[in-house]
From TrEMBL:
Stated role: Catalyzes the reversible isomerization of glucose-6-phosphate to fructose-6-phosphate.
Known pathway: Carbohydrate degradation; glycolysis; D-glyceraldehyde 3-phosphate and glycerone phosphate from D-glucose: step 2/4; Carbohydrate biosynthesis; gluconeogenesis
SUPFAM superfamilies listed in its UniProt record: SIS domain (SSF53697)
Localization annotation: Cytoplasm
Taxonomic placement: Bacteria, Bacillati, Actinomycetota, Actinomycetes, Kitasatosporales
Entry-linked Pfam families: PGI (PF00342)
Keyword Transmembrane helix recorded: no
Reaction catalysis annotation: alpha-D-glucose 6-phosphate = beta-D-fructose 6-phosphate
A GO CC term attached to the entry: cytosol
GO molecular function, one term: monosaccharide binding
Source organism per UniProt: Streptomyces bathyalis
Protein name: Glucose-6-phosphate isomerase
């Protein structure tokens, strides 16, 4: 892969064709695009698995979409996708295969890395996870004193936290309610303190999730949790085996920590951290929702993998979403992208996507080591929709910045809401109304027609023309969650491929880690840090004064 140096993106004729098209597009309004084309809503909609994507409220014509597809073709998106699925080492800076798709490949299929069929290994780990999850769920896994487990605490950070936490929240109606699940990530001792302060160590199980098992936050928290457990139980090291399991690629470090590798669930270096919650990193989730629902979720992922691999670009959800993002990011100077789910169960969805998208595509060096001359990954942000409406939607409607957004809706209320399910139409009416208001706004004639005083008219006018994709699913099932995540994973892939960046490394997080390690002794003991800049040095001095050191 990647033998020939690629023509720079901004030197491709397809790029220039899009720039010219953008000029011609000018301020064309969605009001006009809809007025001129009665079939637009139907034509610019696509069914992707169980997800319906309405992309008609985008500032695009058939010509725009054609030009974007030509850019994708010229950028080799499909070739890179196929290389990923074949297990080629497309993570060039780490020289690794990128095979999160193998994590959800049915057992009968084969995917080889260095000659070895990884699908068999994936399914062996899934079987081991299922055995363990069922034991905890049924109360057959007991703690050191013989009590059954009541609380599972996942200790991990980044991809070893955000995915399981997001999915646990999303699938709460499917969880075993008598078990409690908590997620600890922050090295701030307050996080672990609040998670365990009301727990009985005899009924608590820790899942230490870390791909590398060297991440300082996780190892620090896991070490403190072990201290809390042993002092709470008044027990020796032999109690650890019943209360700690690990998920990692690094068996050596796991056993160095004191966890029996019998109680370790393995995954592999060809799974990136932010692409890993469908691996053993999802162990706490599997305990929560059970192996069957976990497998349904994997099947949902797989369905979109197949769609991404096989659907033609014009009907391919990840291609469409990725290319629409390129259109705004690179030709409208949109700096950010909002993800606005209209489901309370998606409280952690955007936080999860932030890592997925921003750690993947927040790069400024291309795959051949040259600085990029074009914008890459957007700033991804958002919260569940109705809350956002009463906070930052003002800026979306009348601010000076263009913020393309995804509005995600689930047609059926979650199971078990009882009479509260009656509120669902109001929730969904809000979603549809926002898409409508953002797209079509309110003209000053409309405002005047309401008898508004002249001086008030500009304030009450909504320009509209703010693009959104509406994603609609019938129910928030494990399968639908898997489908949505795979859709976003592959969207991020498409964008990284067009920008010619390595979406699978994360060198940008390294410097801060190294500097923090170097600074800690200065904070604790006043140790000298050679070459420390004046600002940081003064902050360290003030910190020490505040701490009375
Ligand atoms: O620091 C970034 C990162 O490497 C993420 O990519 C990863 O998800 C997270 O840290 C946690 O890493 P680990 O699972 O190895 O503890």
């Amino acid at each position: 892969m990647n033998a020939a140096r690629r023509t720079r993106l901004d030197q491709l004729p397809e790029w220039h064709a899009l720039a010219k098209h953008r000029e011609e597009f000018g301020d064309t309004h969605l009001r006009t695009l809809f007025a001129d084309d009665s079939g637009r809503a139907e034509r610019f909609g696509v069914q992707v698995g169980d997800l319906y994507l309405d992309y008609s409220k985008h500032l695009v014509t058939d010509e725009t979409l054609r030009l974007l597809r030509e850019l994708a073709a010229a950028s080799g998106v499909a070739e890179l996708r196929d290389a990923m699925f074949r297990g080629e080492r497309i993570n060039v800076t780490e020289d690794r295969a990128v095979l999160h798709t193998a994590l959800r490949t049915p057992a009968a299929a084969h995917v080889r890395v260095d000659g070895e069929d990884v699908v068999q290994r994936v399914h062996a780990v899934l079987a081991k996870m299922a055995l363990f999850a069922n034991k905890v769920r049924d109360g057959h896994w007991t703690g050191h004193t013989g009590k059954r487990i009541r609380t599972v605490v996942n200790i991990g950070i980044g991809g070893s936290d955000l995915g399981p936490k997001m999915a646990y929240e999303a699938l709460r109606p499917y969880t075993r309610r008598e078990l409690d699940f908590r997620f600890v990530s922050n090295v701030d001792g307050a996080d672990l303190h609040e998670a365990v302060r009301d727990l009985d160590p005899a009924e608590t199980l820790f899942v230490v999730a870390s791909k590398t098992f060297t991440t300082i936050e996780t190892i620090t928290n896991a070490t403190a949790a072990r201290r809390w457990l042993l002092s709470g139980l008044g027990a020796g090291e032999d109690a650890v085996a019943k209360h700690f399991v690990a998920v990692s690629t690094n068996a050596g470090k796991v056993s160095e920590f004191g966890i029996d590798t019998e109680n370790m669930f393995e995954f592999w270096d060809w799974v990136g951290g932010r692409y890993s919650f469908d691996s053993a990193i999802g162990l706490s989730l599997m305990v929560a929702i059970g192996p069957d629902h976990f497998n349904e979720m994997l099947a949902g992922f797989h369905c979109i993998d197949e769609h991404f691999r096989e659907a033609p670009p014009e009907a391919n959800g990840p291609f469409l979403m990725g290319l629409l993002g390129i259109w705004y990011n690179n030709f409208f100077d949109a700096q950010s992208h909002a993800v606005l789910p209209y489901s309370h169960y998606f409280s952690q969805f955007t936080a999860y996507l932030q890592q997925l998208d921003m750690e993947s595509d927040g790069k400024s060096t291309d795959r051949e080591g040259r600085p990029v001359n074009w914008q890459t990954g957007p700033i991804v942000w958002g919260t569940p929709g109705t809350n956002g409406q009463h906070a930052y939607y003002q800026l979306l409607h009348q601010g000076t910045k263009m913020v393309p957004a995804d509005l995600i809706g689930i047609a059926r209320p979650a199971p078990g809401l009882g009479e509260l399910a009656g509120q669902h139409d109001l929730l969904m009416a809000n979603l549809f109304a926002q898409g409508q208001a953002l797209a079509f706004g309110k003209t000053d004639e409309e405002v005047r027609a309401e008898g508004v005083a002249d001086e008030q008219v500009p304030h009450r006018t909504f320009p509209g023309n703010r693009p959104t994709t509406t994603i609609l699913a019938e129910e928030l099932t494990p399968s639908v969650l898997g489908q949505l995540i795979a859709l976003y994973e592959h969207k991020v892939f498409v964008q990284g491929a067009v920008w010619n960046i390595d979406s699978f490394d994360q060198w940008g997080v390294e410097l801060g880690k190294v500097l923090a390690k170097r600074l800690e002794p200065a904070l604790t003991d006043g140790a000298d840090v050679p070459g420390l800049d004046a600002s940081t040095s003064s902050l360290v001095r003030r910190y020490r004064e505040l701490r009375g050191r």
